[in-house]
Specification:
Number of helices of chain B: 3
Oligomer: heterodimer
Number of helices of chain A: 9
Order of helices and strands of chain A: HEEHEEHEEEHEEHEEEEHEHHHEEEEEE
Distance between the termini of chain A: 47 Å
Largest sheet of chain B: 6 strands, antiparallel
Strand order of the largest sheet of chain B: 1-2-3-9-8-5
Number of strands of chain A: 20
Structural class of chain B: alpha+beta
Helix content of chain B: 10-25%
Order of helices and strands of chain B: EEEHEEEEEHEH
Radius of gyration of chain B: 13 Å
Number of strands of chain B: 9
Strand content of chain B: 25-35%
Largest sheet of chain A: 7 strands, mixed
Helix content of chain A: 10-25%
Strand order of the largest sheet of chain A: 10-11-12-13-9-3-14
Shape of chain B: globular
Radius of gyration of chain A: 21 Å
């Protein structure tokens, strides 16, 4: 049997000349003590699973899953002229960004390629950004170069980040949280400052599973106490990276480094909601020439969802065909535990992107039938 | 009937000139939830080390290597509806395929149960 792990997003760094040392996150011992099977991911040891991916996936869809996402980069950006400086690097309209509500945005290169996808929240004195773990060092370099000297970038390396996701996440968190206003004041994509296990916690009602849920930023030294408190709630079990990947795939949410890259534009990636209205009118963001043209005329290819027939899953890199013509390539794929059949994301030519289009995926010399379907594959259940 | 093991975590149980092949309990535990098994065709001619079979789990597709050379005589059709048998019963009901051995000498030097258990304990 071949010894392969193909979790989307795994970055072993194995083919780099100088393999970086794998770092340890604040909850490393906590995961190991609870049976987490640790793998290298984005330069850190992280739990890929505890009791099993399908069991953890199903638990999150039915109850509440606790995810450690402390590998992600938490940044605080402030200073004179910070709004204009951020608008110069992101296609976001900060004039319409109210305090404490995260908004999805995209870090773009000058050709309109995606360097990262991220969340931007307006805090009182500046902006709180959450960026991907595998890209955070490149993001920091890019931002340091692009932002003027008067703007300060704080990398919040002493903060841990947890996510509590699922239909019972509110019930579990509400029982143990306190603050100036109740947790129920938060609807989807709203955030606020709370107390949790005696420490300050920045909590937003957001996540990466398609379920209702919360993302919780806390001091690293309190991470184990907060994780223990949440884990002690009967609705909550810890969930590994494996189920995180299958959950986000079902939710139709792209994963940077796989479904998004410098080779993909926001229009191709079907993320045009990340190009805010005023910015479409005014331009003036990186790659605007290409992106505005694609918004007007369409992009040559598009990220779509595929439903596969049968039970055999196809994965990243598999080629997509319409008859004899190669029309695309898979960027994510796997078995959907909720739907009980394989699903995938692919970039296909615009002519083949309409829902209902019948295509084939090449796998080990065979052709698997597949059909373009709308995403999300599993409906979102956000608390709006 | 004698049972042999490979370092790649396949087992083969030999009855006369026919061997039944599967993956070990350790292997299924490493793979996690198995969702599909791509079995070889009956009649396929295998060389030792070929990868005639793929076990798909939620996280990965993994090749199963032929522990010996020979001709496939039978495959476990039950896995079509119940691929999870490889998780729940890997070393009996979750067998994968049977092969008519081309050269019984290929079994020489393969691990027995005790040697395999010691090998896994050292991983």
């Amino acid at each position: 049997m071949s010894d392969t792990y193909e979790i989307n997003g795994q970055d072993t760094g194995a083919d780099e000349a100088e393999a970086p040392v794998t770092e340890v996150l604040p909850l490393d011992a906590w995961h190991r003590a609870r049976g987490g099977r640790m793998v290298e991911f984005a330069g850190y040891w992280m739990p890929v699973q505890y009791e099993g991916i399908i069991a953890e996936h199903t638990w999150t869809r039915e109850s509440a899953g606790l995810f450690d996402v402390s590998h992600m980069g938490q940044l605080f950006i402030s200073g004179e002229g910070v709004e204009a400086a951020l608008e110069a690097v992101l296609p976001i309209d900060l004039a319409t960004l109210k305090p404490y509500g995260p908004r999805y945005s995209l870090l773009l290169d000058d050709e309109g390629g995606i360097l990262d996808d991220l969340m931007v929240t307006r805090w009182t004195e500046g902006f709180y950004l959450v960026v991907n773990g595998a890209t955070k060092w490149d993001d920091l370099g890019h931002l340091r170069e692009a932002l003027p000297d008067a703007v300060t970038i704080n990398h919040l390396e002493d903060s841990a980040l947890l996510a509590l996701q699922g239909p019972l996440a509110f019930a579990a968190l509400d029982r143990v949280v306190s603050g100036e206003y109740p947790l129920s004041a938060l609807t989807f994509m709203k955030g606020g400052q709370f107390k949790l296990a005696g420490v300050d916690a920045w909590i937003s009602r957001s996540g990466y599973t398609g379920e209702d849920g919360f993302e919780i930023s806390i001091p690293a030294e309190a991470a184990a106490a907060v994780a223990d408190l949440l884990r002690a709630q009967p609705e909550v079990k810890p969930i590994g990276l494996g189920a995180r990947d299958s959950l986000r795939l079902e939710a139709g949410l792209p994963l940077y480094g796989h479904d998004l890259s410098p080779e993909t534009s926001p229009v191709e990636a079907d993320l045009t909601f990340g190009i805010n209205k005023r910015r479409r009118a005014e331009g003036g963001f990186p790659g605007a020439t290409r992106i505005l043209a694609e918004l007007a005329n369409g992009a040559p290819r598009k990220r779509v969802g595929l439903k596969l027939e049968g039970r055999q899953a196809a994965r990243e890199g598999a080629l997509v065909f319409a008859g004899n013509e190669q029309v695309g390539v898979l960027t994510s794929g796997g078995f959907s535990p909720t739907l009980n059949h394989p699903i995938a994301m692919a970039y296909v030519t615009a002519a083949q992107a309409a829902p209902g289009t019948a295509l084939e995926i090449e796998l080990r010399g065979k052709r698997l039938p597949a059909v373009v379907v709308p995403m999300p594959f599993v409906p979102h259940r956000y608390h709006r | 009937m004698p049972r042999y093991f490979t370092q790649d975590h396949e087992w083969i149980e030999v009855d006369g000139d026919t061997g039944t092949v599967g993956i070990t309990d350790y292997a299924q535990g490493q793979l996690g939830d198995i969702t599909y098994v791509d079995l070889p065709e009956v009649g396929a001619v295998l060389k030792k080390g070929d990868a005639p079979c793929v076990v798909d789990s939620v996280k990965a597709a993994s090749d199963v290597y032929a522990p010996v050379s020979g001709t496939v005589t039978d495959v476990n059709e039950a896995l079509g509806d119940e691929p999870e048998l490889v998780n729940t019963d890997p070393e009996t009901g979750g067998w994968l395929f049977r092969v008519k051995l081309a050269d019984a000498g290929e079994l020489d030097g393969m691990m027995d149960q005790a040697a395999y258990d010691a090998y896994v304990a050292g991983l």
